[in-house]
Each structure stands twice: as C-alpha cells, then as structure tokens.
Amino acid sequence: MKTKLEIAKNWLPRYTGTKIDEFGDYFLLTNFNNYVSKFAEQFNCEIKGTGRPMQAATNSHGLSIINFGMGSANAATIMDLLIAKDPKGILFLGKCGGLKQTTELGHFILPTAAIRGEGTSNDYMPPEVPALPSFKLHKFVSEKIVKHNLEYRTGVVYTSNRRVWEWDNNFKNYLNNLGTIGIDMETATIFIAGYANHISRGALLLVSDLPMVPEGVKTEESDLLVTQNFVDLHLQIGIEAMTEIEAKGEKIKHFVF
User: Fold this and answer.
1) 90 within some domain
2) DSSP string of the chain?
3) Do the domain assignments include residue 254?
4) Is 253 inside a domain boundary?
5) How confident is the model at residue 101 (pLDDT cuts 50, 70, 90)?
6) How many structural domains are present in the chain?
7) Can you spell out the DSSP letters for 73-113?
8) DSSP string computed for 239-251
C-alpha cells in the first residue's frame, strides 16, 4: 500500500468492522459508545466494530455514526480513514468544559473556530492556518437547535491534549486571557484534518462540566446527570441536521480545496 487512500480503504473496515460500502454519505462522530447504542436502538440497525478500536452503525437513510474514542490523535485517525468513503459531511457530537460564566451545564456550543493547542493538527497544516468548521453545515445545525426552542452559544473553543489540567492555575489563567468559551480534546483536530482531507465538517459541543471552579470539575456523578438530561437531545439534533442536509441534497463545500 503506497498511497494514503489505499491505506485508508484497508484500515477503515479494520478499525470499525464495517465495509466501506456499508457506510452512508454523512457521518456523526462521537467519543462515546452510548451515542452509538442510542442511534442503533432508534433506527433498529446493527452496531459493528464491537471489540475493535471504533464502533459504528448506519441507518437506512444513509447516516452513519462512529465512536472514534477520545483525544486528538484518534480524531485525526478517523478523519484520515474517512477519505476511503469520501463523505459529503461530518458532524462531531462532543462534550466540552464551559469556560465562561455564561455557559452552563447542558448548553450547546457551535464553535466558530478552535485554537490548536493539541499539537496533532500541526502535522496537517502550518500553525497559522485557522481551525474552522464548514459554516453552511453549522447553519443546518443552528436551525435545528432553534426549532427545538433552545438557545446555543457560539465562540472559540480551545483544543488541548491535556486531559488532567483542572488543578493548574497557570493554565486556567492562560485560558481566561484567551477568552475561549469552552475546552475539549478533538474539535481543532477535526477541523484541520477535515480541511486537509477535503471533508466538510462541523461540531456541536455539549457543555458537560465547568472546570474553572473546583465544584464544577467533572465527576462520575455529574457526568451521569448530564448524560441522563442532555445526551438524547444532543444526539437528536445531530441526527436531524445531517438528515436534512442529505434530504435537501445541498452541497456544503463552499469552494474548491
């Protein structure tokens, strides 16, 4: 295997247990297996890839969901492997920490951009290239949130490779000075790797913790409450947005890469 495409075509089925032609043209990406389980239950479709690095399911409408795991390295891997399918659009359904007082548990964030603090994206594009979503895709997501009579936040999120940083006051001061609205471990990587791989991409982030204050740091109990109260809605908005994009057949690439 000499080319990136040859590798991707071999590895995507190996990682997911799913043949390339079994995937749809549109994708939801997530870090959590329960999103895949809920998706499969809703559409009565099979979960594939159990026991493999990634689990996936595809409904009869041509929408697929993949749990790629946690962190920027895994995010880059799935964005590379998806070139085997040449998707028409992907939406990342991730969780993030809220960094501003205006963000509360259960709020949704549609990032306007992401700061590339994870380092992985530097292997794809020079540091001066901004990590941006495909804004037309975000338009569909925004419309679905409003249709549910919900508010959402926009702003810049910070993507980090550090998972345990909540104790580090210097890092928290750094985040405060940046003015970022949220922090996660994947968004910037997905945006940059998507850009490099010519994939239209977006992210809908669910605020799952408030890590700037000690009482807001995520615990097993607090994460369970967020899952019980907000995950179903998070997934449903993603399903509705990507299904409508497919139904309308609108191109979401604004320009030639």
Assistant:
1) yes
2) --SHHHHHHHHHHHHHS--GGGS-SEEEEES-HHHHHHHHHHHT---B-TTSS-EEEE-TTSEEEEE--SSHHHHHHHHHHGGGT--SEEEEEEEEEE-STT--TT-EEEEEEEEEESSGGGGTS-TTS-B---HHHHHHHHHHHHHTT--EEEEEEEEES-S--TT-HHHHHHHHHHT-SEEESSHHHHHHHHHHTT--EEEEEEEEE-TTSGGGS--HHHHHHHHHHHHHHHHHHHHHHHHHHHHHT-----S--
3) no
4) no
5) confident
6) 1
7) HHHHHHHHHGGGT--SEEEEEEEEEE-STT--TT-EEEEEE
8) HHHHHHHHHHT--
Nearest one of 162, 164, 168 to 185, comparing CA atoms: 162
The whole-angstrom separation of Cα 104 and Cα 116 is: 24
| Residue 133 lies inside a defined structural domain of this protein | yes
- What CATH number corresponds to the domain at position 166? 3.40.50.1580
Contact 54, 66 (CB under 8 A): yes
Other CB atoms within 10 A of residue 86 CB: 13
Q: What is the residue range of 19's domain? A: 4-248
pLDDT of 150-168, one tens digit each? 989 999 999 999 999 999 9
Q: Tell me: the pLDDT tens digits for 66-88?
A: 999 999 999 999 999 999 999 99
Model confidence pTM above 0.90: yes
